[in-house]
Amino acid sequence: MFVLFLVAVLGQAPSVAPSEPGVLPPARSEPDTAPVPAPESPPAVLPPATHELFQRIQNRVAQVRIIERRSGTRSSIGSAFFVSATGHAITNYHVVSDVVLHPEDYTAELVLRTGGEPVPVRLVDVDVVHDLAVIQMDDAVKEFIALEDREPPQGARLYAMGNPHDLGTTIVEGTYNGFIQDSLYERIHFSGAINPGMSGGPTLTGQGRVVGVNVATMGNQLGFLVPVKHASALLTRALEAKQDDAPSLVDRVRAQLLENQQRLTEQMLAAPVPKQKLGTYQVPGRWIPFLKCWGDTPHDPEAPYTVTNYQCSSEEDIYLSSHHRTGVVAFLHQQASSQKLGALRFSSLYSALYAQDPDTVEASREDVTNFRCATEFVDVEGLPVRAAMCLRAYKRFPGLYDLVLRAAALNASTSGVDTSLTLGGFTADNARKLARRYLEGLSWTK
Amino acid sequence: MDEMIFLEVLEGDSVHERHRLERFPATIGRAYSNDVILDDPKVSPEHLRIERREDGALVVRDVGSHNGTWRVEPWARLAELELAPDTRVAVGDTVLRFRRRDHAVPGTVITAAVAPKERVFEHARAFPVAMLALLFVSSLETHLGNYGRTDWGELTVAVVTPLTLTLLWAGGWAVASRISRRRFHYRTHATIGSLVLLGAVALPPLMSALGFSLGLGSGLSWLYHATFLLLMGWGLFWHLRYVARWEPGRLVRVLAVVTLTFGALSRANDLLGNEPFSTSLDFPRTLLPPAFRLARAQPVDSFFEELGGLQEQVDALAKEE
C-alpha cells in the first residue's frame, strides 16, 4: 500500500495509509501547450529548465516540524506550501495528525527557506478523508502558489517538491499518470520518487501550477498525489470560516468521517451484490468497483482437502493517526471441501478456517475499545450458517464503529464456505445494513 | 502403688521406641550395662538414673553426664527431676517422655463395622482400563484434530505423553504414600491419575461440542472452568486419601478452599474486570457436522437485532476511560 511521506524521526514508522479523495487535479505539465507533436525536434519548445522552476518556487515551500512539548524537539517532519498572502499553507493531515489529536502534547512550526528561526503555526482546518490540512502563520508571505484546477495530459512532466528525510528542499522530476483507477479515495498517480518528509509538498507543472499534494509512495517511482481540487476546496472553506463558532478539529474530523461513511454506505447499498460461484455456493463478489478482488486455490497434492480463497478489499484506508486507520471495506471467502476426510476431521479443518480472523483495521488502545461479539445459528434463506458479529467503538469519534462479520455455512458435512466481512469506521446502523446485505448474498446452489 | 512406668523415645511427635521399666533404680545411657540403651553419640555411657525417693516419688537424676540433662518445657538444665505424667527430658539429641501405666488414651475411632470395601481404583483391572481409555481418547482426539495426512509421529506423541505423565505423577504420589502410610499404592495413584488426565483431555472437546450443539456463545467458559476445578479437586481428594490420614470431611473442606483459591487466582483478571486491550474476536470457533446442531437457526432479522446490544456494550466501554 501507500507509504506516507511523513518522516517519523522519533520512532514512528512510516506508515501505510491512503486517504480518500474524489476530485480532479489541476496542474499542468510542460507539454500542455497545445501543439507539441511528436515529430518535432525537441529543443524549441522545451519547458523551463528545472533549476529555473526551483528558483521560482523554492520560497513558497517550507518544512513542517511537529514539536513534542516535553522533549521540546521535533517528533516528525513534513512539507507544506504557501497558498495565500496571509500565511496559509497546505500540508497533509497525516503530517499534523498529532497536533489534531493531542494539541496539549504537540505543536507545529514552519522552517522557511529564507532562513531565520522556525515560525509557529496554527492549524486552521483539516480534510481527513483526503489527507489534507491548512495551517497558517501570523506573518504575511510575499510569494505563494495560487491553486487552480486543470488536469494535465498523461505523460506530462511534473516536479515534486519537498524535504525528503530532512535533507533540504528538493525537486524531483516525474510524470503525470492520471487518476488511479477505481480507487476508493481519489489519488493521482505520479511516476517519480516521493520520499518520507516530502508529504504535504506540492507537485507542479513546468509552469509552476500545482497538480497535487504529495501524499504517499509505494516505492520504485510509484508516487501518489492528492488532487489539487480538494486542496482548493479546503482552502476556500478555511478562508470563509468564522473563528468564533467553529467546532473543534476533532469534531470536524468526526463529521468528515461520518459523511464519508454515509457516502460509501449509500454507494454500496445502491449497487446489487454480485454473486460469485465458489464450489456449490454463491458468495458476494466484487460488490463495487473500488474493491480489488483476488483469489487462489493452493494445490498441495498431499493435502486431503482443497481450500479456495476469494478476497476483496478496498486496499485503501483513511489515516487517522500513526496507529489508527479507518474507512475500510474488505471481505474474504474460504471454500473448503474434501473427498477423503470424514465428517469430524473435516470439521477440524473447517474450525481451523473459522478460527482465522482477517486482519482487523489497525488501531491502538487509545483509539478503540475491545470487540464484543454475538454468535448464533442463522437461517439465511434456507442455508443454515454459524454466524458471529463483533463490534468495537471508536473512543475519540463517538458514533463510529468497526464491525467484523464471520459466517460459516453448515449444510454439508464435508464441504462448506467460511466468510468474513470487515467494515472499518461506519455507524452501527450503516454497518448493520451492509453486513445484512452481505450475509444475504450467501447461498447454496444445489 | 503401681510402680511400672513407660519410657518413650520420641521422634518428632511420634514414639520411636517404648521401654517398660518395672524395677528401680533403672539406668539409662549409651553403655550396654544400662537398662535402657540409647544410641545417641551425645549421650554419656552412664547418663540417667531413675530411682524411688524415700517419700515414694520417682525421680530422674543425672549421674554426671558430659552434656547434661535438660527439661524440655520450660527448657532448663537439671540435676534431678521428679517425674510427673508426660514429663519430657532431653539428653543429647534424644527426647524422652515418661508415662504412667494409667495414662488415659483417646477414645477409639469408630469405623463402619463392614469388611473394608475395595474402591474402584484399587481393583486390579481399574488401572489398565483407565490407562487404555486415556490413550485411546488421546490418540482419537489427535487423529480427529488432524486434517492433513496421517502423522504417525504426532500419534506416537499423543500416546507416549499421557502415559509418561501419568506414570511420573503416580510415582510422586506413591512416594508420598510410602512416607506417610508405609505403602506405595502405586497402582491406585496411577489409576486416579489416568482418570483425571482422561477428564482433562476429554473435557475441552466435550464442552465445545456442547456449546456448538446448543448454539451458546462464550458463556460456557465459566462452566468449563468450574468443571475443570471440580475435576482437579476430585483428583486431589482421592490422591490425598491414600496419603493423609485426615477425615474425608476435613479433606473436602481443605480442598474446596485450595481449588477455589486456585480458580479465583487463575481468573483474577476477569473477576476484577481488568480486561487487557486486544484486537482479537472472542467467540467460539468450533464447527461440527450439521447433525450436531440442536439449536434452532434464527432468522437473519433477529441475528442483526443483537447488534443493538453490542453497540450498548462497546459504547459503555468507550465511556469507561
Provide a concise account of the structure shown:
The complex is a heterodimer of chains A (446) and B (321). Chain A has 446 residues and is of the alpha+beta class.
Structure in words:
The complex is a heterodimer of chains A (446) and B (321). Chain A has a seven-stranded antiparallel beta sheet with strand order 16-17-20-24-23-22-21, with helices on both faces. Chain A contains six helices and 25 strands. Chain A is elongated. Chain A has 446 residues and is an alpha+beta fold. The longest helix of chain A is centred in the middle third of the chain and has 22 residues. In chain B, helix 1 runs parallel beside helix 3, helix 2 crosses helix 3 and helix 4 runs antiparallel to helix 5. With 321 residues, chain B is α+β, with helices and mostly antiparallel strands. In chain B, strands 2-1-11-10-7-8 form a six-stranded antiparallel beta sheet, with no helix packed on it. Chain B has a five-stranded mixed beta sheet with strand order 4-3-5-6-9, with no helix packed on it. The chains are: A alpha+beta (446), B alpha+beta (321). The interface between A and B is large, with 65 and 49 residues.
Question: Which key phrases capture this entry?
Answer:
heterodimer, A: 446 residues, seven-stranded antiparallel β-sheet, six-stranded antiparallel barrel, 6 helices, 17% helix, B: alpha+beta, six-stranded antiparallel β-sheet, 7 helices, 12 strands
Largest sheet of chain B: 6 strands, antiparallel
The main pleated sheet of chain A reads as: 7 strands, antiparallel
Uncertain spans of chain A? 5-44
Indicate the low-confidence ranges of chain B by residue numbers.
Answer: none
Assembly state of the chains shown: heterodimer
Helix-residue proportion of chain A: 10-25%
Spatial strand arrangement across the major sheet of chain A: 16-17-20-24-23-22-21
Q: Any idea what the shape of chain B is?
A: elongated
Count of distinct strands of chain A: 25
The structure class of chain A reads alpha+beta
Shape annotation of chain A: elongated
